[in-house]
Design brief:
Ribonuclease iii, N-terminal Endonuclease Domain, Chain A, two-stranded antiparallel sheet, Double Stranded RNA Binding Domain, 4-stranded antiparallel sheet, alpha+beta, single chain, 10% strand, flat, 349 residues, 6 strands
């Protein structure tokens, strides 16, 4: 095959088409009936094969564009439909009576041909009227995938020499619900969400009041020590999905509309690892013993306890938050802080 998973050994190489020597060849029948002749067999892990296929798709995408990449995918058996099916919507709806269409369009720098998509993108599941086509979840599902792809392409082109590991970290720090929620708060999109949930209203009000204490300079990373209502991040994704459908599936228009909300985007200089990953990597590097997180709950809140044994000293911290992910993040940040303080040299007072 063409996949190289070991160094080249010239002693085992023979010139294709050279019949001057004697070689023992084995006949093999391919899936399409063709025959090939080989000298030996070697094992290649399935993940290596999958990685090569993904890399080839990336090569076709970066050099020939999306059409070339899709042709290649079809060629290797990954069937892709090239046909764009028009999205036909027939709703008797007056969007201007439900949302401030003009203001939101100015925020997004985009004019909707079908404003009912805008209404759908801002409608929470608790707010359902007969004339509203549906809640934002389908558009959120679509926008999530589109934004993930657009940020990936942006980072790949913006940092051509960057390692895939750093690019993955930068993407993870840029495309998550907390980042989108920060953007929604800064743009005051929360004022336009249609919902009928008293609890959601309280959660949004609490978040907005406490957001003033947080840094509002960045829209990426893992600095937040509070959790955001999921709906805040969801509406950024659903708006991206709405623009994607309304523009005739034009990803460039989506990026032009949504990227200003996400500014400033992460850079290698501003990148910070997620505290959970940072703690795991730090413990592996220093050969510390990290215990399995202990999870408890109390009055509807999640509590996570993290314990690390480092050089005979136990570093144990417990954090409580509205969800397990935030509690785990906070507990890991506290243990990291404790570990770093313990390794700092003492200063004379």
């Amino acid at each position: 095959g063409f996949i190289r998973n070991e160094s080249f050994d010239p002693k085992n190489w023979f010139i294709p088409g050279d019949y001057s020597g004697s070689y023992l060849l084995y006949e093999e029948l391919l899936y399409d009936g063709r025959k090939i002749y080989t000298r030996e067999r070697r094992k290649v892990k399935s993940k290596s094969v999958a990685d090569v296929v993904e890399a080839l798709i990336g090569a076709f995408l970066s050099t020939g564009g999306e059409v070339a990449a899709m042709y290649f995918m079809n060629w290797v058996g990954i069937k892709v439909d090239f046909v764009h099916i028009p999205c036909e919507r027939h709703f008797q709806l007056q969007p201007e009576k439900l949302v401030n269409v003009g203001h939101i369009e100015s925020l997004l720098n985009y004019s909707f041909r079908d404003p009912s998509l805008l209404v759908e993108a801002l409608t929470h599941g608790s707010y359902m009227l007969p004339e509203i086509p549906g809640c934002y979840q389908r558009l959120e599902f679509l926008g999530d995938a589109v934004l993930d792809y657009l940020i990936t392409i942006y980072l790949y082109n913006e940092y051509p020499g960057m390692s895939p590991g750093i690019l993955t970290d930068m993407r993870s720090a840029s495309v998550n619900n907390d980042c989108y929620a920060r953007s929604a708060i800064k743009a005051e999109l929360y004022k336009h969400i249609l919902h009928a949930s008293h609890k959601l209203h309280k959660d949004i009000v609490y978040t907005i009041e406490n957001f003033e204490r947080l840094s509002t300079e960045s829209t990426f990373g893992w600095d937040s020590e509070t959790s955001f209502p999921k709906v805040l991040g969801d509406v950024v994704e659903s708006l991206a999905g709405a623009i994607y459908v309304d523009s005739g599936y034009d990803k460039e228009i989506v990026f032009q509309s949504i990227s200003p909300l996400l500014q400033p985007l992460v850079t290698p200089e501003t990148l910070k690892l997620h505290p959970v990953r940072e703690l795991n990597e730090h413990c592996q590097k220093m050969h510390y013993d990290m215990k399995k997180p202990v999870k408890t709950s109390n009055n509807g809140e999640a509590a996570i306890t993290i314990e690390v044994e480092a050089n005979g000293v136990t570093h144990k911290r417990k954090s409580t938050a509205s969800n397990k992910k935030t509690a785990l993040k906070l507990a890991c940040k506290e243990v990291l802080r404790s570990l770093k303080e313990a390794t700092q040299p003492a200063t004379n007072s």
